[in-house]
Amino acid sequence: MFVVDLLIGFKGVEAINTDREEESKQFIATARTRFNLTSFKDIYENSISDHQVILGNQDDYPQWIQQRIYCADNNRADKSGITTVMATDDYPLPSLETLYDIPSIETLLLMNQFVVDLGSISRLPNLQHLSVSANKLNLGPHPTLKRHFHHEIHSYH
Q: What is the pTM of this model?
C-alpha cells in the first residue's frame, strides 16, 4: 500500500494561483484542515509541485508543506525547476539578488513590497510574467519595461 500511496497524486495542487496572483485558497484550505492521516499526507505532499515558491510567512503551513513551497534562507538545494515565485507583503525583499540565482523563473509576483529595483531584471532570462505591487519602483535602464509600465505605475502614500 505504501508504494501505491507514492504513485497517487491530486491533480491541480498548486500553492500559487497565478491567474489571481495570490496564494491558492484551495491549497490553503486543504493544507490546513485535511490530510492529517499519514497516508493522505504522503499523497498530498507528493502532489505539491515544487516549481512554485512562496517567499512569505512560513508559519502558515505545517513543516512538511513548508519544505515544498518555501525557498527562504537557501533551504532548497536544487532550484533549477522553480518557475513561479511570489514574495508576499510579510517577506520584504531587500533586493532581488537572491532571485537572480534562479534563472528558471518564468513568473515573478512581488506583492506589497516597499521598494523594488528592477535594474537587473534581465538576469532572469526566462521571465515571461511580472507583477509588481510596490511603494517605490525603479525600472532601471529597460526601455521595454518603461513602455509597458508607463500607464500602470501607481504611487501609494
A: 0.66
